[in-house]
Amino acid sequence: MESMSTHIKSPTDNESGEENFDLPEEIILDILLRLPVKSILKFRCVSKSWLSLISSQLFIETHVRVSTENSKLNGHKLIFTVPYSPSDSDQMQCSVRSLLCEQPLTDTLNIDYPMKHPPMHIWMVGSCNGLICIAENIKDLFLWNPSIRKTKRVPSMDLGQNIYNYVAYGFGFDDDDYKIVGIFSVSEERRYKYIMMVYGLRSDSWKRVGELEGGIPLPNSIKFASGKLHWWASPDIDTHCKRDIVCLDLKSGTYGTVEQPDYERDYVNRTLGVLGGCICVLGDSGDNIDLWILKECGVTVRGSWSKVSHFPCIQSFSLLLKPLCLLPNGEILLVNGSSFIVCNPRCSSFTVLKSMKLQGRFFDVDIFVESLVSPGAE
Fold first, then answer.
1. CA angle 279, 157, 373 (to 5 degrees)
2. What's the pLDDT score for residue 59?
3. For residue 26, how many other CB atoms are within 10 A of its CB?
4. Distance between CA 281 and CA 131 in Å, rounded?
5. CA atoms of 86 and 92, how far apart (whole Å)
């Protein structure tokens, strides 16, 4: 932090000889780190020293950490993929705080999708430190920071001519680099096998790392937490009865199997998610919803799981039930189709929010934190 505060000048610095009132450097820095991205971008014009500070990698990384740990969820945004319309953006956003106000949302805004001619359907692979990974099809990927309106097209990978019909993507960060993991079924030597490709933002290139271990990810099940990608895995693409939670350490490339919670009942559906930076499992028995959080992500000890919620199911719940985030008061925000639900673990109850009014339905929703992290814009 000290290296960032060197030679920071206040906005009153000038060359006119007038007397200035300078704030202490530590206070200026502390204020800047707590501001929303939109304000910080404006303050780059204050002086060369402010521009240098705000553009520094250390400031950007510290701002992400401060924003992520903000107990009031300032800067936490929901991003929606809405049904495609040729005349409209198919991405919208709103703040988590506005959603919880139970009032008509005033900051639900269309945001410019980075590509001029989006396809009929896109999906969000994941978000990390303000960067969102978007897939348009099996090969076209983008890294996008909507807060600073910068995007990068990920270079195409060379899969040869033998690609089959299965693909899964995961996106995360390993303390040194942002990485996209792609899993594909290919036909080689007269047999189908699953291979893994890894893209690194620093090298801006893909690398084939070998055949997949640990089981095939089920569609849309890959989640990132604590430097690892986690997914529901089955022995083959057509087998869904046996599911393990497999984790891949993005830094070391090693695999592991996470011991699952001690389930108390059979579930119609189990959903893998992330809450408070930790992997969670949401189980739907048809009558009740149970939620466990893995306090130590990647640890293969059953006792690391903590059951945090149990509440009754209602008829409108579906297989689309998805955990989004932990709220400051200990409650949990979930989405079910196009409805948002706040679960109260203390009294095993839930409330369906009435504030979200979007035209029609949306395909998907994810959460991200506003940041200054650049995807390496084109």
1. 50
2. 96
3. 13
4. 24
5. 15
